[in-house]
Amino acid sequence: MATNGKPHVLVVVQLTGGNDFLNTLVPYNDPNYYDARPTVVIPQDQVLPINDQLGFNPNAAPLKDVYDAGKMAIVQGIGYANSSRSHFRAMDIWHTCEPNKVGTEGWLGRAIRDIDPNKENVLTAVNIGRGLPRALVVSGVPVTSVGDLDNVGLMTSIEEQERRNMALEMFKKMYAPAIGSGPVSEYLSQTGSDVHTGADILRTAPAMYSSEVEYADNPIAKSLKDVARIHLAGFGTRIFYTQHGGYDHHANELKTHPQLMQELSGAIVDFFQDLRDHDAADEVSMLVFTEFGRRMRDNGSGTDHGSGGGAFIIGERVNGGLYAEYPSVNPSDWLYGEDLDWKIDFRGIYSTMLEQWMGLDPVPIVDGQFEQVNPFN
Question: Is 9-366 assigned to CATH 3.40.720?
Answer without folding.
Answer: yes
